[in-house]
């Protein structure tokens, strides 16, 4: 089962940055969105290396210093912003769990969340 939730508006996102969200109210960010101008991408905040580790070392720190890749602070895995594919690090070739996202005509950033699965792998 899935549900669509509004994460924010496009204006709430930095032009070339990332931001975490807690749409299921778990008390920590479980989803993050990366914006590249008019393009936005959303992923579960779970690194495929261990499957249940959040990526950033502090709130919203999902990108490298140049803003060119998503990085995991734990062991340095790097992921393509547009695809979530790991291009270097211990989970090379694996991918972040992408979340369907769309921006409404009014600028609302809407994510479709799977309510049965948070994207984490079983231990
Ligand atoms: S948990 Fe992300 S690189 Fe190891």
Automatic annotation (TrEMBL):
| Residue intervals of the Rieske domain | 5-110
Molecular function in Gene Ontology: 2 iron, 2 sulfur cluster binding; metal ion binding
SUPFAM superfamilies associated with the record:
ISP domain
Q: What does the UniProt keyword field contain? A: 2Fe-2S, Iron, Iron-sulfur, Metal-binding
Q: Which CDD domains does its entry note?
A: Rieske (cd03467)
* Keyword Transit peptide annotated: no
List where this protein forms a coiled coil.
none
Sorted alphabetically, which InterPro entries does this protein's record hold? Answer: Rieske_2Fe-2S, Rieske_2Fe-2S_sf
Would the keyword Metal-binding turn up in this protein's UniProt record? yes
Q: Name one Pfam family in it.
A: Rieske
Write down what this protein is called: Nitrite reductase/ring-hydroxylating ferredoxin subunit
Species per Swiss-Prot/TrEMBL record: Microbulbifer rhizosphaerae
Q: What does UniProt list as this organism's lineage?
A: Bacteria, Pseudomonadati, Pseudomonadota, Gammaproteobacteria, Cellvibrionales
């Amino acid at each position: 089962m899935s549900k669509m939730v509004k994460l924010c508006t496009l204006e709430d996102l930095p032009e070339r940055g990332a931001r975490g969200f807690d749409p299921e109210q778990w008390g920590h960010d479980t989803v993050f969105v990366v914006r590249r101008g008019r393009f936005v991408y959303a992923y579960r905040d779970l690194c495929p290396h261990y499957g249940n580790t959040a990526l950033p070392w502090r709130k919203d720190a999902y990108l490298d210093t140049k803003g060119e890749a998503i990085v995991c602070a734990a062991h340095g895995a790097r992921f393509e912003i547009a695809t979530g594919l790991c291009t270097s690090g211990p989970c090379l070739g694996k991918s972040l769990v992408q979340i369907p996202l769309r921006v409404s005509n009014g600028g609302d950033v809407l994510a479709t969340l799977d309510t049965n699965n948070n994207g984490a792998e079983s231990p």
